[in-house]
Amino acid sequence: MINLREKPANHERIICAVVSIFVFLCLWQFAAAFTKASLFLAGPVEVIKAFFVSFARPIGEDRIFGHILWSLSRVLTGFVIGSALGVTAGILMGLYKPVNAFIRPLFELIRPIPAIAWIPLSIVWFGLGEPAKYFLIALSSFCAVTINAFTGASSVDEALIGAAKMLGAGDRQIFTMIILPAAVPQIFAGLQIAIGAAWMTVVAAEMVKSSEGLGWIVIKGQEINSMVQILVGILGVGIVGFILATVMRVIEAKLFVWNERGK
User: What are the pLDDT digits (tens) for 137-161?
Assistant: First the structure.
């Protein structure tokens, strides 16, 4: 009898992934070649070919690798800023009840608002340049990291803290040796969510006002009515997003072997 809860082996997961992607591409090609979808949908062969050609032939002023680097630079800048602020705010909220009482209501008001809704205000506050994009990415990262840092810091076993105090540990020792190590797995989970949110946000931000980036490729393809270019941009977004998520999972597996969550 097959145990559906049993974790599949690595080779089984790879085979399943390859099969699922192959089936998806076949269905996509069939729809593009033999249905009315061909009127508004380019086939995967044409899109994949155009994607690889774009590494040698510029789209706008840059080849696609240049557009990827532009998007990544924006993501990493905003991600670092937002994550640093999120970790600080989350830990302070988890450790100090007055800080939590003061910040939490405002945070809960801001958290449900998608980053894309802040685009008009970001343009008013920061103009149409790079700072507006950094603000949007930082905001999306901040919300994801803050709630996880708060959860990690506030869920530390009080008995451990009490025992450390009885043994003469000071506040700094308690924070660095008990609270922070206990909160780090939750913080890292928040960082994984934040990098995905940041990547989605930069694509939206580049669609508003930009002259480079994967989001620009998509919106420019719409302007010139090029379905192939639109799908090339979307393919680039998906591939880079997948790579970012994979890198974060690999880092977590290396750093937190002791905290394997049984994925």
Answer: 999 899 889 988 888 887 776 777 6
Taken in order of first residue, the domains within the chain and their CATH numbers are: 61-259 (1.10.3720.10)
Instruction: Please give the Cα distance from 201 to 42 (Å, whole number).
Output: 26
Helices 214-223 and 227-255: angle between axes, nearest 10 degrees: 160
**Burial track 105-131 (b if 16+ CB lie within 10 A, e otherwise):** eebeeeeeeebbebbeebeeeeeeebe
How many residues are listed for the chain in this entry?
263
Contacts 24+ apart (CB under 8 A), 70-74: 70/212, 70/213, 71/199, 71/202, 71/203, 71/206, 71/213, 71/214, 71/215, 71/240, 72/240, 74/130, 74/133, 74/134, 74/137, 74/202, 74/205, 74/206, 74/213
The tens digit of pLDDT for each residue in 55-85 reads: 989 888 889 999 999 999 999 999 999 999 9
